[in-house]
Amino acid sequence: MIKTIGVLTSGGDAPGMNAAVRAVARTAISRGIKVYGIRRGYNGLINGDIIEMNERSVSDILQKGGTCLYTARCPEFRTAEGVDKAVAKCKEIGLEGIVVIGGDGSFRGAADLSAKGILCIGLPGTIDNDIACTEYTIGYDTAMNTALEMVDKIRDTAQSHDRCSVVEVMGRNAGYIAVNTGIACGATEIITKEMPYDLDEVAKKMLETRKTGKQHFIIVVAEGVGHSQEIAQTLQEKTGIEARATILGHVQRGGSPTLRDRVIASLMGNYAVDLLTQGIGNRVVGMQNNKIVDFDIQEALSMQKPYETHTHEVAREIAI
Ligand code: ADP
Ligand code: F6P
Questions:
Q1: Which residue in 13, 104, 128, 130 is the catalytic one?
Q2: Has 128 been annotated as catalytic?
Q3: What is the pLDDT of residues 185-197, one digit of tens each?
Q4: Which helix (H) or strand (E) holds 276?
Q5: Atom of ligand 1 nearest to the CA of 104
């Protein structure tokens, strides 16, 4: 039976990471397993920035955004020497397993550690929802709801000035935040890398809908497409309708996690400790058909995620 585990957050922070850390720590403690919090991702493992946790160490964090363990990107961990230093630290303090909360990059690190005999379980923590083996990542729901709230506010001013507002949302290379925020806010057009788009057609649609009484326009652009400023300028030139671009940025990463993020993070954190107590490592936890499941890390990293084409098409059809 495993006696000592650690938990770390790595890569970009996401709302709900704290709920996952809490679930890991509390599940371990209730099962008599010693648990350490490793700070600033893999940096903490290399530098020994590690604290023993008790049940009260994770009090009052469930409702907070960010991560109480801090997070970081750790280039040293990408080297063989870095991994060896981390393994040596695990041996020194008796860490037999680690729950790694992060994205694909963090899971690659977890696979390296697993190959050296440290049982690692990855939990999907990113606002981008760009992890192929899971329908859902911790932080995604909160980020989308924040983006939606921001677009609703932007609409007030776009409406008052009869303008077009081009709003860029995060997602790295993926358009999941954009397509869902776009349909939910009633965007005239959603522009992502996954679907073809034509600014001439967008301009035409704006002018046609103006004839039926539409006075202001919201265009949601995924970060991966970029050029929001140019898109706004081009649409203004093509339509004569005044346009403004807003890049929402890191506001989408912060804030109190939604109920959905807290629930999924709690269930996934508990599930990760379940795997470790069975002596299982080198797995990524995910959600498929609303059920929590797990995959081999390499298999998870080789999977492809479909885009939400149907949602995008419906959004286009009803935005008239
Ligand atoms: P995310 O986990 O959100 O994808 P990153 O890609 O920045 O974020 O990865 C987070 C950290 O995971 C990196 O700073 C590094 O420490 C570790 N990591 C990323 N890729 C690898 C890799 N190929 N091998 C080992 N460790 C990696
Ligand atoms: O992965 C989360 C994310 O916020 C992406 O949406 C964005 O592309 C990136 O991280 C921004 O990274 P940073 O905070 O390092 O600027």
A1: 128
A2: yes
A3: 999 999 999 999 9
A4: helix 259-277
A5: 4
